[in-house]
Design goal:
The complex is a heterodimer of chains A (about 110) and B (about 110). By secondary structure, chain A is mainly beta. Chain A has no helices and 11 strands. In chain A, the strands form 2 sheets. In chain A, strands 2, 4, 5, 6, 9, 10 and 11 form a 7-stranded mixed β-sheet that branches. A 4-stranded antiparallel β-sheet of chain A has the order 1-3-8-7, with no helix packed on it. The termini of chain A are far apart. Classes of the chains: A mainly beta (about 110), B mainly beta (about 110).
């Protein structure tokens, strides 16, 4: 069966420090992968999506970047974190039927 | 681009009350529609979905949703809620025809008092 994992689950980082959140999918190949940010009362904001290795599309310009070095790995990064980067980040992969499967989420606090 | 509106941001009910959460979308073409649920401390998961066919779809835990094309709506319903239905509910829309970019509503926080 397919699974999706994110780590770390919780992260506290100082302003200006780098960030790396990882997402790995198992049990499927060439998945469509997504990074969302969830903010209270604001729903899910799509940050990046990828349809294949090395293919990244950005939905919102900001202080973050994404990479897909392997078929089932999706990484969210930043070179220098801002306070406004704090939030709950969700990775998801899309089934052929169209629904998304989400990871457990990573809560980032920037101090 | 499509958009999704969830009009009820916070809903508080007592157990056994009936539930209806509104979802409207703006997109002129064929759509695929979803409701996701996030229980406290858990990850987002699919509640139900509509692609085609019977506009009344049934999901897990007694939930159902009705697609009304003329109203661009996909409201979620449950005849009798339970305390365990306390969660955040998200409506999502993906244009049909192979698109893979879902758009989510802002979510509705449901609290059910025992």
């Amino acid at each position: 069966s397919q699974t999706i994992h994110q780590w770390p689950a919780t992260l506290v980082q100082p302003v200006g420090s780098p960030l790396s959140l990882e997402c790995t999918v198992e049990g499927t190949s060439n998945p469509n992968l997504y990074w969302y940010r969830q903010a209270a009362g604001r729903g899910l904001q799509l940050l990046f999506y990828s349809v294949g290795i090395g293919q990244i599309s950005s939905e919102v310009p900001q202080n973050l970047s994404a990479s897909r070095p392997q078929d089932r790995q999706f990484i969210l990064s930043s070179k220098k974190l801002l306070l406004s980067d704090s939030g709950f980040y969700l990775c998801a992969w899309r089934k052929e039927s169209g629904e998304l499967f989400f990871g457990e989420g990573s809560r980032l606090t920037v101090l | 681009a499509q958009s999704v509106s969830q009009h009820n941001h916070h809903v508080i009910l007592s157990e056994a009350a009936s539930l209806e959460l509104g979802c409207n979308y703006s997109y002129g073409g064929t759509v695929n529609l979803f409701w996701y649920v996030q229980y406290p401390g858990q990850h987002l998961q699919l509640l139900l979905k509509y692609f085609s066919g019977d506009p009344l779809v049934k999901g897990i835990k007694g939930f159902e949703a009705e697609f009304i094309k003329s109203k661009f709506s996909f409201n979620l319903r449950k005849p009798s809620v339970q305390w365990s239905d306390t969660a955040e509910y998200f409506c999502a829309v993906t244009p049909g025809g192979g698109s893979y970019i879902p758009t989510f509503g802002r979510g509705t926080s449901l609290i059910v008092h025992p």
